[in-house]
Amino acid sequence: KNEVEQSPQNLTAQEGEFITINCSYSVGISALHWLQQHPGGGIVSLFMLSSGKKKHGRLIATINIQEKHSSLHITASHPRDSAVYICAAPSDGSQGNLIFGKGTKLSVKP
Amino acid sequence: NAGVTQTPKFQVLKTGQSMTLQCAQDMNHNSMYWYRQDPGMGLRLIYYSASEGTTDKGEVPNGYNVSRLNKREFSLRLESAAPSQTSVYFCASILNLDSLSYEQYFGPGTRLTVT
Known about the structure:
The complex is a heterodimer of chains A (110) and B (115).
Chain A: E1 4-7, E2 10-14, E3 19-25, E4 32-37, E5 43-49, E6 52-56, E7 59-64, E8 69-74, E9 83-90, E10 98-100, E11 104-109
Chain B: E1 4-7, E2 10-13, E3 19-25, E4 32-37, E5 44-49, E6 56-57, E7 64-68, E8 74-78, E9 87-96, E10 102-106, E11 110-114
C-alpha cells in the first residue's frame, strides 16, 4: 500500500510570495493528483500528472517519478489561494482508489 | 450540469440509528466513490463502484454498505451508527480524459455527527 507524505503541514505566506508544497510517496505510481479544499470544505481536482510538469494559471505541478516526489508551486500568491492542498497517489492499480496525504494548510496574508 | 450532489448536507444521529447518504452525478461518469474525512487524517476511501452494478471495498468499509442504484446514483448506508462514524463524507465521480488520465469531481460533503 502506498504511503503519501506532505510537507509542510501548515504554511503562512505574504501576498505575492512564491509557494512550494511537497509530496512524497512510497510506491511507484503511474500518476499523482493534486487537489484543493476550500475553506468552506469543497474539494476541487487541480492536476493529475504522470511525468514532467503541468501548469494552470499561477499553479505549477511537477513530478519526479524516479525520486517518488512531486511539488506544487504557486506563483504570485494571493489571499484567495488560501486553502488546504492535498496530494494523492494510487493505492493499487484501480483508477480512483487513492491514498491521500493529510494536506497542507496554506494561508496567504494581504 | 449540477455535477455531483449529496444529501443531506448535515445530519445528527443517535448511536444505533440508521441512515442513508445519497449521491448523484449527472455527468454520465462510470466510476463513483465514497470517502470520509476526519481531522488530522487524509481522505480515506470507504467503497467505490467502477461501473454500474459493481461495488468494491476501499480502505475503511466496516460499518457501511453501498448501493449503485443506477449509473447516476451511489448511496452509502450506515446500518447502526457509532460515534466513530462521526465524520465528513464526500462522494466523488471520475471523468476519463483518455486511457491514462482522469479527473475526479467531488460532491459538497455531508457532515455527520453521531452522539
